[in-house]
Amino acid sequence: MNEGAGRGSVVLVHGGFVDGSGWQGVYDVLTADGYSVGVVQNATVSLEDDVATTHRVIEGMPGPVTLVGHSYGGAVITEAGSHPKVKALCYITAFAPDKGESVGTLIADPPPGAPVPPILPPQDGFLFLDREKFADSFAGDLPRPQAQFMADSQVPWGLEALNGAVSQPAWRTKPAWYLVAGDDRMIPPPAQRAMAERIGATTVEVPGSSHSVYVSRPAAVADLIKQAVEAEG
């Protein structure tokens, strides 16, 4: 058991279109090293509901908590991270909104030439990715059958989650870490780097990794989380 495991626990928050099961590889690495890990299962219907769900998991974990978010989960941890048990934030190719911003505002004006996520028109207030384009955009470094399964098992992402605005960004008062996925075709790496710089995050980059870096490169993701857990202050 890692002697640093006594510093608290880790809570993992998934993003849109997926559920918490994608964290299994990261969970396995962290728990093997003795860390206490909770995995949030958000409905991704609204940001408000996802923050409340995340708070319930935080409250059930031994503190202090390092809160980790992937993609849309970055918006969730930005708001939920104001919980007093949270000591640090860890963004895994994730959105990091400021006060009044949402994922929707952050993706509203992509730069020329940037990859555009294959999001289909809303259905009854929910979004899906085009199944035929999911693998290339979301999971380009995963085996094709695994990426296809993720495409076919998508969780609908609510417009209220996409457009939910952050009211109190936790990164303004708590230290942050950021992992840039070098070949991400959902959130362009330059946008990731800009968000990481804006929030003053300690940043690492995993070259050649897709938006599914938390699935494809669990050891690299776990290493960054451990840095956040073990950091003093």
Main sheet record:
6 strands, parallel
Number of helices: 10
Approximately what portion of the residues adopt beta-strand conformation?
15-25%
The arrangement of helices and strands along the chain is EHEHEHEHEHHEHEHEHH
Explained architecture:
The chain is of the alpha/beta class. Helices cover 35% and strands 16% of the residues. The protein has ten helices and eight strands. The strands form two sheets. Strands 2-1-3-4-7-8 form a six-stranded parallel β-sheet, with helices on both faces. Strands 5-6 form a two-stranded antiparallel sheet. Strand 3, helix 3 and strand 4 form a beta-alpha-beta unit. The mean pLDDT is 95.
In short:
By secondary structure, this protein is an alpha/beta fold. It has helices at residues 24-32, 47-59, 73-80, 103-106, 131-138, 144-152, 159-162, 189-198, 213-216, 218-230; strands at 9-13, 36-40, 65-70, 86-92, 126-127, 157-158, 176-181, 202-206. The strands form two sheets. It has a six-stranded parallel β-sheet, sandwiched between helices. A two-stranded antiparallel ribbon has the order 5-6.
What brief labels describe this structure?
single chain, 233 residues, alpha/beta, 6-stranded parallel β-sheet, two-stranded antiparallel ribbon, 10 helices, 8 strands, 16% strand, globular
Write the topology of this structure.
Layout: E1 9-13, H1 24-32, E2 36-40, H2 47-59, E3 65-70, H3 73-80, E4 86-92, H4 103-106, E5 126-127, H5 131-138, H6 144-152, E6 157-158, H7 159-162, E7 176-181, H8 189-198, E8 202-206, H9 213-216, H10 218-230
Parallel strand pairs: 1-2, 1-3, 3-4, 4-7, 7-8
Antiparallel strand pairs: 5-6
Helix pairs in contact: 1-10, 2-3, 5-6
